[in-house]
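Throughout this review, each integer encodes one residue's backbone shape. One record appears below.

===
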Amino acid sequence: MLRRRLFASLSALAVAVALAIGIPVAASAAEQPSVAAACNAPNWVAGKWYEAGSIVRYTNGQYYRAKHANPGYDPVISTWYWEPHRCDDGGGNTKFVVSEGQFNQMFPRRNSFYTYQGLTAALSAYPGFARTGDDATRKREAAAFLANVNHETGGLVHIVEQNTGNYPHYCDRNQPYGCPAGQAAYYGRGPIQLSWNFNYKAAGDALGIDLLRNPWLVERDAAVSWKTALWYWNTQRGPGTMTPHDAMVNNRGFGETIRSINGALECNGRNPAQVESRVNAYRNFTRILGVDPGGNLYC
């Protein structure tokens, strides 16, 4: 390990000298930075848990993004878990692969609550989303996310779960924190219909928002609503074996995102009509974005 770190330091010094005297330096495939990341990322801390998509500033002054969740592995050594990121202008303003015009084309009947501005404001919570890999991969991930969102909300029409009879059932009293907002307060809300008190607690903790005591924020604040959907997409496996984000950036196909979101009820032939609805939306959205949908569309 020491030799490898010393070699990395010497390599960095050689690159710096070359740049100083005007010699162009080409990065290797392993060193090639991925899409831009904000310059104000926190310093990497050994032993700290990092979710997929987290961006850190390493001790060499460079930025790295977590490709996979990990317990604070060294970004220079653990390259399966981390990848280099290049810094943007410092404001974190990297361009989303879906334009506002394309977003409106995808959701012509959307509820005015689900604003494009709310979505783009939420992207800072998970900088790796739709910003990982090549252009085709980024567009496929955005299309996959929005296609599942389309299915869950009826085309971004519904903000809350329509079956009010289900509302009292989403309070798990076995959790030590209980249901401080009330027995019937944790019904489905937002683009991926966040439900259950333990999910509101987990999402709120990850986002730094007290959603356990104020779950109504998910139906009142567009950016918070989108952030909860991105939280699930980037960090939760659901009934699947990987997060939807990992499925798309590792070329496992759109079908794996269905499995992670609602596989227990839809996959393996349980509800082919629902799966077809998601796949049709995904095909339509990739067409709008000008990218082929890839393989493994069904679960």
Summary: Confidence is low (pLDDT under 50) at residues 1-39, 89-93. The two ends are 42 Å apart (CA to CA). The first strand starts at residue 34 and ends at 37.
